[in-house]
Specification:
Blueprint (H helix, E strand, L loop, with lengths): L16 H22 L4 H22 L2 H4 L5 H24 L5 H28 L19
Helix pairs in contact: 1-2, 1-5, 2-4, 4-5
């Protein structure tokens, strides 16, 4: 008769480092979008930041309710790291375009918050990269040949 082993204590997503980085990313992106809306910046700035807010919110809800554990047919960390890379690229482009021309102070603030969001996306991608290695404690370290057990 097989005994059921209790799983280790699970840390809630909101209390993890990954959760804090995602929440910070969401707050910075919402702030950037709000600045663009109030400054009446060009529509692509607002649309791209709004789209990113929607995607980040989706991933936060996914991880809070642990839906990634229910839908095992999709490799969520890979999708999340691709999202982080694409978001970094989009936010850098939007932020630089917002900062280049002489515009209103709110547009400049939106661009600065967008650049900080891009930095958070890079940090989020680095955290996810560790998960993609299937070794959350750090990179793989190869043992020397003479340390192998013979039997």
């Amino acid at each position: 008769m097989a005994t059921v082993q209790p799983k280790g204590k699970h840390r809630p997503f909101c209390c993890s480092v990954k959760g804090h980085v995602k929440m910070l990313r969401l707050v910075l992106t919402v702030t950037s979008m709000t600045c663009f809306i109030l400054a009446q910046a060009p529509e692509p700035y607002i649309v791209i930041t709004g789209f990113e807010v929607t995607i980040i919110l989706f991933f936060i809800i996914l991880y809070i309710f642990r839906l990634d554990r229910l839908m095992k047919w999709l490799f969520w960390p890979l999708l999340d790291i691709i999202n982080s890379m694409v978001t970094t690229l989009f936010m850098i482009i939007v932020s630089v375009l917002a900062l280049i021309p002489e515009t209103t102070m709110l547009t400049i603030l939106g661009g600065v918050f967008g650049l900080v969001t891009a930095v958070c996306c890079i940090a989020d991608g680095a955290l996810l990269y560790r998960k993609l290695l299937f070794n959350p404690s750090g990179p793989y370290q190869k043992k020397p040949v003479h340390d192998k057990e013979l039997f």
